[in-house]
Amino acid sequence: MHDFSKPIFGSTVTVCLVDEFRDEFLLSGAKNVADKYDITLLILDSVNDIDTVSINTEIVHFIFRLKSSFSPDIISSILFTLPTAYKSISVAFSYEDESHAACYQDLIEKEKVMREASLDCFNIMRPDTYYQGHFTVSPLKLVDNIICDTIRVKYTPVCISSESVADTLPDEVKKFFYRAAELYDSYNMFHRSYTDGYFSIKFEGVVYITATKTRKDKNLSLDRVSVIHSYCQRDNLLHYSGAFVPSSDSVEAMIVYQNSNAVELIHTHDSRRFTRNPNATMFPRIEPIEYGTVELGYKIVESISDNESNLIIMEEHGEVFIGFNHSDCTSAQAIVEAISVLELPLVV
Question: Are 114 and 107 in contact (CB under 8 A)?
């Protein structure tokens, strides 16, 4: 697995896409994103076409949207067909409706645990839309996956210094990251992986953020904290220092810091508790928007302005807890309070 001590460039990536629905909207969107980030995109008619393609890039990611519902046998068949050198895969199954999809949830979680040990990236994507009579995964999520599971960041990173900033972090900043990791770990505030989301703090005018693909549980390493010096929206350039590339969500974090009085951000993917919890209607929500974009940043800013909530839910993405002062680590306190509101048991 790439540790993102250096960015991944699109020219080193090939994405193979199989869509059994042959949705022209999806295929067009995939081509546009691949062209934008210089990724090689191969559109295949079926899983059986995999062994006919010639791939010459360092990184290869496979995306499948199937008309079938989840089946371990289908997963095994796909993995058997893949060239042995390539171990990055996202699969989108389709169902009759939401209740039909929910029947497979526990089986899917078991499959993911079993497969992740031998694969660099294994993702069974959660359906979020209806198409051609099926409950399946939307083009927005599939197109975003082209980036999310390969180069990850949509901004252009400019590294000022690749030295770790861990030893230079102020005590208040260290306290914030450790407290965020404690809560993230205790409450299992991730859906897909303990690398989901980001922690960020703006302290004495300096922005600190976890690097992309960073463990954020109790094993969080401060070596994987980066300093963002600046973000230029016009050029999409992000200047940073640190041993690893900043979070793929750094763009929206910087937009929030530049346009609101927020000073702490904790972004999690606690979907069962918040994002997809029908009982979490008391919290403000933002419609689905691509991650890592200024559009999402400004939508968060707008929601901060319109609501008096330290928690904003981003549909089909996750949630962001916001702190407006450092005195009580208010973003972390917002987590505790939000979980208490939902009357979920506290973790000791």
Answer: no
- Contact 135/101 with Cβ under 8 angstroms? yes
Alpha-carbon distance of 252 to 8, in angstroms, equals 20
From residue 259, alpha-carbon distances to 145, 172, 242, 246, 301 in Å are 28, 23, 25, 20, 7
- Does residue 210 contact residue 245 with C-beta atoms inside 8 Å? no
Q: Is the dihedral of CA 251, 200, 125, 145 positive or negative?
A: positive
Asked if 252 and 292 count as a contact pair (C-beta separation under 8 A), the reply is: yes
Neighbours of 12 (CB within 10 A): 15
Stretch (H or E) spanning 330: helix 330-341
Listed in sequence order, the residues at least 6 apart from 22 whose beta carbon sits closer than 8 Å to its beta carbon are: none
Q: Is 13 in contact with 125 (CB distance < 8 Å)?
A: no
Q: How many residues does the chain have?
A: 348
How confident is the model at residue 340, as a pLDDT?
81
Closest CA to 317 of 267, 262, 266: 267
Report residue 215 as tokens: 């463990």
Rounded to an integer, the average pLDDT of 316-333 is 89
pLDDT (tens digit per residue) in 65-86:
999 999 999 999 888 887 766 6
Q: Compute the average pLDDT of residues 326-341.
A: 84
> Which residues are CB-neighbours of 189 under 8 A, at least 6 positions away?
183, 197, 268, 269, 270, 273, 335
244 band by pLDDT with thresholds 50, 70 and 90: very high
- The answer to whether the beta carbons of residues 68 and 93 sit under 8 Å apart is yes
Using a cut of 0.85, tell me whether the model's pTM lies above it: yes
With CA atoms as reference, report the closest residue to 155 among 209, 195, 119, 203: 209
What spatial distance separates the first Cα and last Cα of the chain, rounded to whole Å?
Answer: 33
How far is 234 from 242, CA to CA, in rounded Å?
23
Which of 59-63, 114-118, 238-242, 314-318 bottoms out in mean pLDDT, i.e. has the lowest?
Answer: 114-118
